[in-house]
Structure formats: C-alpha cells, structure tokens
Amino acid sequence: MFTARVIGSVWATRKHKSLDGLKMMLIEPIDGRTGKASGEVQMAVDFNVGSGPGDTVLIIDEGSSCRQILGHDKGPTRTIIAGVVDKVHSEDGEKKYH
C-alpha cells in the first residue's frame, strides 16, 4: 500500500467488462508525511470510494487483492483506490490533507 494524489481521470469508450461502471483515475505516488511526489504516474480503479482530482488516496497495488475487492477473478486490474486520506500521523508530527 502507498499514498498518492489523484491528478486526473481516464475515459475509455471501450474497456473490459469487469471495469464497467467504475472510475479509472490517474494517480501520482507521494510521500505521505510530506506530500511530495515520489513515483511515476499510473492508473488506479476507484471502486465506490468517490475520489477526485486533488484528493490524497490510499492505494493497494497488488492484482489479487484488487480483483478480490472488485469481485472479478480474471479482471485486468492491479491497482485500486482503497480510501481517501484525511491525515497522516508520524514521528515528524501530523500532516492534514482535508
């Protein structure tokens, strides 16, 4: 799992049936303590979380877990948005995102 910032939406006129009705979002991994970018932009599925551009989110990046959450054994998914982050507590203190 890691934290990321939603930076946009992905629109597709045709996609795998297991993705019908789901939002596909562009995410940028960040350091949860500082909010600074820490990785390459990638796509993640939003399964009833309701995230949008600018939100800080918690990401599960493992195909089997993603497919279990979606309920599709053979869906072409690996990365899913598990929740919206409000704040992060660490040794350095607290970082609020909302």
Structural notes for this entry:
- With 98 residues, the protein is mainly β.
- It has one helix spanning 63-70, and strands spanning 2-10, 23-29, 42-46, 56-61, 79-84, 87-90, 93-96.
- The strands form two sheets. Strands 1-2-3-5-4 form a five-stranded mixed β-barrel. Strands 6-7 form a two-stranded antiparallel sheet.
- It is elongated, with a radius of gyration of 14 Å.
- The chain starts with a strand and ends with a strand.
Structural class: mainly beta
CATH topology: OB fold (Dihydrolipoamide Acetyltransferase, E2P)
What's the CATH architecture? Beta Barrel
Low-pLDDT residue intervals, each spanning 5 or more residues: none
Q: Level of helix content?
A: under 10%
Supply the CATH superfamily name: EutN/Ccml
What is the CATH class name? Mainly Beta
* Euclidean distance between termini CA atoms: 20 Å
Side-by-side strand order of the widest sheet:
1-2-3-5-4
Helix/strand order: EEEEHEEE
What's the number of structural domains?
1
Continuous helix count? 1
For the report, how would you describe the main beta sheet? 5 strands, mixed, barrel
So what's the overall shape? Answer: elongated
Rg over CA atoms, rounded to whole Å, is 14 Å
* Beta fraction: 35-45%
